[in-house]
Amino acid sequence: MPETERYTDSKKCNEDRGLNATFGRRTTTEKEYTAIFVNSNAVGALFCDGEALSLKHTAGVVVVEINLGDVVYIRTHPQDPVGGAIPSGGVAFYSYLTHHESNPGHHQTIVFDSVITNVGGNYNRHTGTFFCPANGVYTFSWTLYCSAGGHIYSEIVVNSNAVGAMRCSGEGANTYRHTTSVVVVEINQGDAVYIRTHPTSSLSGYLPSGSTYRSSFSGWKLF
Fold first, then answer.
1. How far is CA 62 from CA 13, 32, 66, 161, 173, in A?
2. pTM over 0.90
3. Is residue 119 a contact partner of residue 90, using CB atoms and an 8 Å limit?
4. Model confidence pLDDT, tens digit, residues 35-77
5. Who wins on pLDDT, 199 or 64?
6. How far is residue 155's CA from residue 163's CA, in Å, rounded to a whole number?
7. CA distance 209 to 214
8. For an engineered disulfide with 4, which of 20, 36, 103, 129 has Cβ 3.0 to 4.6 Å away?
9. What are the structural domains, with CATH classification, of the chain?
């Protein structure tokens, strides 16, 4: 029997498995529709009606089969109405890593934990993931530093598919080196975009970042 797990932001599956997931919402005076997603596919939904004098809550349970690398998360429903304000206008974010990643491993999501810009609120600093709010063409850029004598391979991933890759090498150097890469991709509402280390390529040294040299991740919608 699969174990039951609770998701507060998002979680990436680390093995092929069955999954029981519980999710719930609590609201005061508003109606809210939410859905649980695997990558960009809704696998469950619920409605919470808070039109009452006290808090109301609703809980839902799904049982799904998911695969290695799948991202599971909760969001408001993209089509049904929500009682609160909905961000409008452009989409853009910029975030950076506030500390050294001393021992990065293979297939590791890099969580850029400090957010400078987050227009639309679609980047999650706790998981390092940008969730696409609307179909369109987007630009993403990431910069990584590597330690002297080291090297690191990284990828930008949409759901579980790598759409760009980069190598940073400090080999032969006596100080940090950095590399920046840019991709322009067409993505769909609900897609999850994040940076990870390469699943199999070798890693050496550590990933530096700080206030005066920032390993960073940014993106914006073109049209």
1. 15, 19, 12, 24, 52
2. no
3. yes
4. 788 887 777 776 665 554 444 555 667 677 888 888 888 876 5
5. 199
6. 7
7. 5
8. 20
9. 4-76 (2.60.120.40), 92-221 (2.60.120.40)
Tokens coding 163: 């759409």
Phi, psi for residue 180 in degrees, rounded to 5 = -125, 140
3-state secondary structure the chain: CCCEEECCCEEECCCCEEEEEEEEEEECCCEEEEEEEECCEEEEEEEEECCCCCCEEEEEEEEEEECCCCEEEEEECCCCCCCCCCCCCCCEEEEECCCCECCCCCCCECCCCEEEEEECCCEECCCCEEECCCCEEEEEEEEEEECCCCEEEEEEEECCEEEEEEEEECCCCCCCEEEEEEEEEEECCCCEEEEEECCCCCCECCECCCCCCCCEEEEEECC
The three-point CA angle 79-45-112 to 5° equals 80
The token duo for 62 is 């799904």
* Dist CA 179 CA 143 (whole Å): 6
Q: In a 10 Å sphere around its CB, with 0-12 CB exposed, 13-18 middle and 19+ buried, how is residue 71 labelled?
A: buried
- Bin 125: left if φ > 0, else alpha if -120 < ψ < 50, else beta: alpha
pLDDT value at 196 more than 50: yes
> Of 217, 221, 146, 218, nearest to 186 (Cα)?
221
Residue 194: the pLDDT is 98
| Max avg pLDDT among 69-73, 98-102, 178-182 | 178-182
